[in-house]
DNA sequence: CGCCGTGTTGAAAGCGCTCTCATGTCACGA
DNA sequence: TCGTGACATGAGAGCGCTTTCAACACGGCG
């Protein structure tokens, strides 16, 4: 491969000349070689190798109107992205899946509403073939914005109370997973089963509450407490719970991190887990589960799989017969039984 | 702004026609309007607004050979990205700084050496104006790869034992910060000062060790223990330390997370901090520091600033007079005095 | 009054590629 | 032998933009 800088890259023209074919034929070979006879294919391939030819993406996009790139929009205030592996893991799933399709990932990090204009402009600018937005909160205007930009897009996580045309989404079966967790506690013979929920502006938290209510009809409101998905808020919720309902013998906690806090408080109060109080978490986050004592029984969700799935859904959307929007996808959960329940 | 899909976007031609000027003049206005008289500037601006014109990036790149995009290469095995806010924070700094310059961020996540080919191809493909790679380990071939791709690039963090042409980098003053930490312990009158270091394949860990040695000439090797930057490894190192050198009265721990583990062990052993053993961490990671008891004295590094700085350095590199490579940049640290030392 | 420099505008080339369409080739059947 | 259809190939248009260069207008100066 000859020495070359960004400036003097060989063009398809050069490849064609070297291979003794037309630019059109060279182009066909570079794009798969369909409809070109083998000897010519070989010649062109050889020329490509010898010259170190790499197609010019801008030129290609100009004519194909495709970009081989997808925007990933993270709308999340700083603290959550940092405290929660959830995002990194989902992003990794997306990254892997895009990579395997040879599609680039353009990261758009939205800090607040003041960024909306920029995002809208970028999407409308037609720089990407599609978009994946994840982590949306109840009142987020982002889905509307994205819809208006006309860029094919999917959401990671069920959107909130958006009206208007909705985008397809992927999500974990939060409600079903919660049901399974609570049913498990019931099957252990627990009578006073509490729920430490996540923040009410996130659909995942709401869905888990719904699952709790699916199984336990009309529970004492004191048994339902809200945390912020952090260890500390889980501890606080557990403490309050014990103060008001000392008879509690089972707790379904909306995520593992809060469950960790709950376990700590139970330990501090001298209560045995699972004998006195059985605890079930949600997520099956490796680092957290490993740190827990006793080992945490929890509802596993495949976060990386969620990321991958969002890409698959987007791809389906991009290849759809015009006007047909694919259905949203819900990923199943698995109850992982360990020592805590 | 008229209804439009990705397909029927107005072109510069349309804007020019509507404004009653040539395409060339319209282009000048769109790109700042230098050398065009005010009345025409206004007319073109109006036409742009009325038509909702957005320049076609591919067409522009094709002629300017610039892309308005930078690749950010994360080379890190899964577990660290997740356990350590360091990366998200640095990424956010980069994202913010690029956004403010209207440059897009293309994320390339490198899992292992098998991805190197793909990365090299992408960089050589000339899709981006520059690259920022961060989190490199001692034997990483990535810098070489990047250098060979001829794409202007900077590194986040001092690279390891690479030979050959090195890329400019940004890094925290790990050595200076470590010196400051150890000097502080000395100033407190501590006599047996230990160091719990990070893994030996990372330059940041090595530099902090060097800083420790700068202050303490020829310390007992037993006072130096290695961890993996995790809470647990910090605890283990502290336990070993106490077993072998029960006289230890000061510890400089290479990061806050390990310091947290060290504090836990000290507490478990009934030792008072700082009275019996003074502890200094490194990073000043908010979430960790908040969880520590007593409040952790630590060396603050501005991680987000590091990310921003890497962008600034790259910009300098891109605008350099040919052949002139800007110098690497080291960011200063600050000792934050709290209760633990 | 003519010339020249300065500043503004437009015509047109061309960035590197894809893709349509016309042309050519070849095997086969009539 | 010739026509025919299937397939392979090349010529060339054109994607939307920037940028050079020529043309032109205008004012000041000799």
What does this structure look like?
- Chains A, B: It comes from Streptomyces toyocaensis.
- Chains A, B: One of its GO terms (molecular function) is transcription cis-regulatory region binding.
- Chains A, B: Pfam families: LacI, Peripla_BP_3.
- Two copies of one chain form a homodimer.
- Chain A has 341 residues and is an alpha/beta fold.
- Chain A folds into three domains: 12-55, Orthogonal Bundle (434 Repressor (Amino-terminal Domain)); 69-171 and 305-330, 3-Layer(aba) Sandwich (Rossmann fold); 174-300, Rossmann fold (3-Layer(aba) Sandwich), CATH 3.40.50.2300.
- Helices cover 45% and strands 16% of the residues of chain A.
- The first copy, chain A, contains 14 helices and twelve strands.
- In chain A, strands 2-1-3-4-5-11 form a six-stranded parallel beta sheet, with helices on both faces. In chain A, strands 7-6-8-9-10-12 form a six-stranded mixed beta sheet, with helices on both faces.
- In chain A, strand 3 (130-134), helix 8 and strand 4 form a beta-alpha-beta unit.
- The longest helix of chain A has 16 residues, at 85-100.
- Chain A is elongated.
- At the A-B interface, helix 4, helix 5, helix 6, strand 2 and helix 7 of A face helix 4, helix 5, helix 6, strand 2 and helix 7 of B.
- The structure holds a DNA duplex (30 and 30 nucleotides).
């Amino acid at each position: 491969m000859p020495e070359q800088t960004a400036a003097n890259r060989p063009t398809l023209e050069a490849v064609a000349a070297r291979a003794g074919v037309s630019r059109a034929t060279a182009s066909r070979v570079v794009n798969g070689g369909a409809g070109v006879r083998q000897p010519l294919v070989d010649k062109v391939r050889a020329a490509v190798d010898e010259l170190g030819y790499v197609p010019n993406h801008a030129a290609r996009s100009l004519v194909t109107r495709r970009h081989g790139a997808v925007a990933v929009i993270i709308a999340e205030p700083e603290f959550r992205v940092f405290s929660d592996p959830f995002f990194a893991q989902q992003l990794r799933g997306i990254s892997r899946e895009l990579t395997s399709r040879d599609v680039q990932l353009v990261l758009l990090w939205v800090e607040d509403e003041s960024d909306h204009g920029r995002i809208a402009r970028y999407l409308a600018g037609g720089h990407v073939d599609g978009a994946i937005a994840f982590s949306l909160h109840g009142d987020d205007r982002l889905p509307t914005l994205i819809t208006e930009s006309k860029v094919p897009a999917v959401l990671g996580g069920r959107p909130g109370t958006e009206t208007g045309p909705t985008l397809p989404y992927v999500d974990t079966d939060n409600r079903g997973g919660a049901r399974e967790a609570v049913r498990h506690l019931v099957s252990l013979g627990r009578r006073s089963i509490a729920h430490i929920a996540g923040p009410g502006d996130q659909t995942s938290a709401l869905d888990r509450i719904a699952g709790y209510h699916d199984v336990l009809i009309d529970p004492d409101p004191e048994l339902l407490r809200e945390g912020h998905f952090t260890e500390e808020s889980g501890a606080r919720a557990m403490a309050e719970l014990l103060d008001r309902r000392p008879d509690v013998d089972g707790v379904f906690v909306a995520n593992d991190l809060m469950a960790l806090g709950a376990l700590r408080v139970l330990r501090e109060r001298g209560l045995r887990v699972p004998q006195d109080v059985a605890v079930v978490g949600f997520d099956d986050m490796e680092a957290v589960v490993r740190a827990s004592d006793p080992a945490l029984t929890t509802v596993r969700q495949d976060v990386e799989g969620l990321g991958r799935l969002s890409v698959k859904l987007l791809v389906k959307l991009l290849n759809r017969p015009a006007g047909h929007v694919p259905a949203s996808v819900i990923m199943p959960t698995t109850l992982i039984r360990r020592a805590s329940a």
